[in-house]
């Protein structure tokens, strides 16, 4: 069994605390560059990406390495996956189970509690849980009583905070939130909510089977504020059927008026061969590539005008938000939950398809509900595939995270942490970096690399330069387009 490189933990903690103050993110639109570099590629919620997860690795080896490399003197982040949805949204690419039978929830929760007990034995070690997230599916598919029970089980097995100072968040479908549900969520410890909105145009909503009036969303948001939730995020999607520049601009104005703390504006990737529900969406109803680009351009410009900070890729936050402050201080992090402020936390995930990041190991549970249930019943876990990070993986992961979070890279701390000569180690990448610089995506200040305003939209493509698993720099199957 391999162990973490001596001193690596100390170096990583030092790098997390290093101060690389980032200027406010500005975007420069260059259609020629976008056309040239808007290919398919990873979103880099991890490196190596999930494509590299190996189903042939034995779970025992993954568990042993995870326990050996876990940051036991740091807090934990927990993720709970609730897969059920009462209605199918045609655009959705999440791991989900569509059912109106609420009785299916309790057997799943019972399985989850068995897995949770095993995970706590492996990783809890009296570590405080600074971050908690319930995702799905639709987490509020389960009843208020079941949510109370689930949080109670989490408190039984892990050291959850009781001072309301952690980041405890849950994804909400405003159509599925009962009158008392928000109050229950606040009472059991949640202080952040993320509302799925996608688009407020009734024609677009009908085309994706998600009818959700503005008043319904507004009512949930207002009640969340009244109850003292300290952060409200809204998710939007551009590229859905029947979307137009004018229509999405109107949605954006309505959303800005609701004044959420954070916004995510995701690119819809139409992959009907991979996601069956997307077969309900007609190709001819989708906006053109130029319309999608114009929608994104207007969205970024309008949100910045409204006072939001462009964090990167598809995320925006208010200037006083913790994401913004983390980016300004050089402490922003990225993992399977997207941009986060908890770089020091191991991520312990539970539920069907859930992905954990613990020490130098990533692993994913089985993605089929029946198989997940059987595996937990048989062996108290459902680990299906994963990857053991080696020194080169950790090095490249550090570089990619720095670029995708802060749009700059100073080789000096990297050289110190990994005992390398940066230019020699990445000699093969120098020609490509030079080409990116010549094309205006990058610039060099001495040895420091900075992503230009024209390159920030294409940060995923820049990160691909350091991806050892992508041998050819062109469109990569299995990933969404960059823009």
Shape: globular
Low-confidence stretches: 1-23
CATH superfamily of the largest domain: tm_1862 like domain
> Tally the helices: what do you get?
17
**Domains counted in the coordinates: how many?**
2
Largest sheet: 10 strands, mixed
CATH topology of the largest domain: the name is pyruvate-formate lyase- activating enzyme
CATH architecture assignment of the largest domain: Alpha-Beta Horseshoe
Instruction: Please tell me the overall pLDDT.
Output: 91
Number of strands: 20
Amount of beta strand: 15-25%
Distance between the termini: 41 Å
Report the radius of gyration as a whole number of Å.
Answer: 22 Å
Tell me the structural class: alpha/beta
Percentage of residues in helical conformation? 25-40%
Enzyme class: oxidoreductase
Binding site for S-adenosyl-L-methionine 1: 79, 136, 171, 355
Subcellular location: Cytoplasm
Catalytic activity: coproporphyrinogen III + 2 S-adenosyl-L-methionine = protoporphyrinogen IX + 2 5'-deoxyadenosine + 2 L-methionine + 2 CO2
């Amino acid at each position: 069994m391999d162990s973490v490189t001596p001193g690596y933990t100390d170096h990583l903690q030092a790098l997390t605390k290093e101060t690389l103050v980032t200027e406010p993110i500005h975007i420069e639109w260059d259609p020629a560059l976008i056309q040239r570099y808007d290919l398919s590629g990873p979103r880099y919620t991890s490196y190596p990406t999930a494509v590299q997860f190996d189903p042939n690795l034995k779970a025992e080896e993954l568990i042993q390495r995870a326990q050996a490399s876990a940051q036991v003197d740091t807090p934990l982040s927990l993720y709970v996956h609730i897969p059920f949805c009462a209605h199918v949204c045609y655009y959705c690419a999440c791991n989900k189970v569509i059912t109106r039978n609420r009785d299916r929830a309790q057997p799943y929760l019972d399985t989850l509690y068995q897995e949770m007990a095993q995970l706590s034995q492996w990783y809890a070690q009296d570590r405080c849980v600074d971050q908690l997230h319930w995702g799905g599916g639709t987490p509020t598919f389960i009843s208020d009583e079941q949510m109370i029970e689930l949080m109670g089980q989490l408190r039984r097995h892990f050291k959850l905070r009781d001072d309301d100072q952690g980041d405890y968040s849950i994804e909400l479908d405003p159509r599925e939130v009962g009158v008392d549900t928000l109050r229950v969520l606040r009472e059991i410890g949640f202080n952040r909510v993320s509302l799925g909105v996608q688009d407020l145009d009734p024609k677009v909503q009908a085309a994706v089977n998600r009818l959700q009036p503005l008043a319904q969303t507004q009512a949930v948001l207002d009640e969340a504020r009244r109850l003292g939730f300290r952060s409200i995020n809204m998710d939007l999607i551009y590229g859905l059927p029947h979307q137009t520049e004018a229509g999405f601009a109107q949605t954006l104005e309505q959303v800005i008026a609701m004044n959420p703390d954070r916004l995510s504006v995701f690119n819809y990737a139409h992959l009907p061969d991979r996601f069956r529900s997307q077969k309900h969406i007609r190709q001819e109803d989708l906006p053109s590539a130029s319309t999608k680009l114009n929608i994104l351009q207007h969205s970024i410009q309008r949100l910045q005008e409204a006072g939001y900070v462009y964090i990167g890729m598809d995320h925006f936050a208010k200037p006083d938000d913790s994401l913004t402050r983390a980016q300004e201080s050089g402490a922003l992090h990225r993992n399977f939950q997207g941009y986060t402020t908890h770089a020091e936390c191991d991520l312990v995930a539970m539920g069907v398809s859930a992905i954990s990041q613990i020490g130098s190991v990533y692993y994913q549970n089985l993605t089929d509900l029946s198989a997940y249930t059987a595996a937990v019943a048989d062996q108290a876990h459902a680990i299906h595939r994963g990857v053991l990070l080696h020194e080169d993986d950790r090095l490249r992961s550090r570089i990619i995270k720095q670029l995708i979070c802060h749009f700059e890279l100073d080789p000096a701390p990297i050289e110190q942490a990994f005992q390398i000569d940066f230019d020699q180690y990445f000699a093969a990448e120098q020609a490509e970096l030079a080409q990116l610089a010549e094309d205006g995506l990058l610039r060099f200040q001495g040895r420091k690399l900075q992503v230009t305003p024209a390159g920030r939209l294409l940060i995923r493509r820049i990160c691909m330069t350091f991806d050892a698993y992508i041998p050819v720099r062109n469109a990569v199957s299995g990933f969404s387009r960059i823009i």
